[in-house]
Write a structure and sequence with these properties.
The chain is globular and about 65 Å long. The protein is 40% helix and 19% strand. It folds into two domains: 215 residues, Rossmann fold (3-Layer(aba) Sandwich); 172 residues, Glycogen Phosphorylase B (Rossmann fold), CATH 3.40.50.2000. The protein is an alpha/beta fold.
């Protein structure tokens, strides 16, 4: 058996996709025999321009290769991202030109890698297994709501690409069950719902209990700072209203970081600290030094169906979680993640009120940790990938 594994992001790059697929890849190797093989084709680390990482172009093991295609730095603009993907697309086509595979696995948030997977499965005449982490066409509808012509043109083009990509897939894994209604129009693929999960590195670190804390309370966010999070719309105003008893620590980079900086300067906010992205080992140190762990999704309809990976990372610790989410993510937290403060996305007063009314407690989430370990989720997902490869 020979599997082509397409993931735009892969360790040592940062981000949920890189962590998810690196771990899944290693789990998949355990499910293969001595004669089997996995070829990973990914990109050289590129997630943040402010965080430089080096990785070898090619790694080779007994039953695998990992090839990292160098792509142009793109910031976070759409044109730059399209140009970077074209480089990745051409690189993949070149690398697989003379190869044969039994399955193409492709993981995708922005549809492009899923589309590439479909193109490669057609070319190689083998089954396609997709892992879908976002609803790209629906996102376009919301993000470009104020630019009707651009939105209509993009949605028309991307809907055709989406239909081509999903309609003939053999298996589609949806990272959130909130996506299910969007895929009812594609009845042919088999479906699974393997979510993100908790890595052992966070579970082990989260065993350390928080001792009594003193003010100012530290509220930590770590991750992308972009339109999807909308931190610039909430954090500066909330920090100003909360005052010196609370301190926000924002770790990351992204397209709306300049907007966040500008808003902080305009309001004269002093209790927000902005830090560049760091490795996971250092992130853990920041989490342990925090009183609250924070996340938000922007107030757009498309985000009511997603399930942020950050929930699983934060949930490994005993810190209370502050979450500005709606829809499926809100219900998931209510049902599975104890000790939380929930508010409606972008609602500054809701966040401030929730914090001021909350009496701080620290609580181990044993049931949540046991139920959503990445190790067990990836074991099941790797098994389903092997079955899809051997079915045809």
């Amino acid at each position: 058996m020979k599997i082509l594994f397409l993931s735009y992001s892969f360790e040592p790059d940062l981000g949920a996709c890189a962590f998810r697929n690196s771990h899944l890849f290693h789990e998949l190797l355990h499910h293969l025999g001595n004669e089997d093989r996995v070829d990973v084709i990914t990109t050289a680390p590129n997630r943040y321009s402010s965080y430089s990482l080096e990785a070898p172009y090619k790694e080779t093991g007994d039953n695998y290769t990992i090839t990292r295609i160098h792509i142009p730095m793109h910031g976070n603009g759409m044109k730059g991202q399209v140009k970077a993907f074209v480089s990745y697309y051409r690189g993949v086509r070149r690398l697989v030109r003379k190869e044969k595979y039994d399955l193409v696995y492709a993981t995708s948030a922005k549809l492009f890698t899923a589309y590439l997977g479909r193109k490669m499965s057609n070319r190689l005449r083998c089954p396609l297994y997709l892992d879908i982490r976002d609803l790209f066409v629906e996102n376009l509808n919301d993000i470009f709501s104020d630019r009707r012509f651009s939105r209509n043109l993009l949605v028309w083009v991307m809907s055709r690409i989406e239909n081509y990509t999903f309609s003939k897939a053999d298996h589609i894994n949806l990272i959130s069950e909130g996506f299910k209604p969007n895929f009812e129009k594609y009845p042919s693929p088999e479906y699974s719902y393997y979510t993100n999960g908790m890595d052992d590195i966070f579970i082990e670190a989260g065993k350390k209990r928080t001792e009594g804390r003193i003010k100012p309370y530290i509220i930590t966010y770590a991750g992308n700072i972009g339109t999807g999070q909308g931190l610039d719309r909430v954090v500066p105003d909330a920090a100003l209203k909360l005052g010196e008893d609370y301190r926000f620590r924002i770790i990351g980079d992204g397209g709306t970081l300049p907007l966040l900086r500008d808003r902080l300067e305009k309001l004269g906010v002093k209790n927000v600290e902005l830090l560049s992205p760091v490795k996971r080992e250092e992130i853990i140190r920041y989490y342990l030094d925090s009183d609250f762990l924070y996340l938000q999704l922007n107030d757009l309809d498309c985000f009511k169906k997603v399930l942020p990976s950050k929930i699983f990372e934060y949930g490994a610790f005993d810190k209370p979680i502050i979450a500005g989410v709606a829809g499926y993510a809100r219900k998931f937290i209510e049902d599975n993640v104890p000790n939380h403060i929930l508010y409606h996305p972008n609602d500054v007063d809701g966040l401030v009120y929730g914090l001021k009314e909350y009496r701080i407690t620290f609580e181990m989430r044993d049931a949540f940790r046991d139920g959503f370990r990445r190790e067990s989720l990836d074991y099941a997902m790797a098994d389903s990938i092997v079955k899809a490869a051997t079915k045809h």
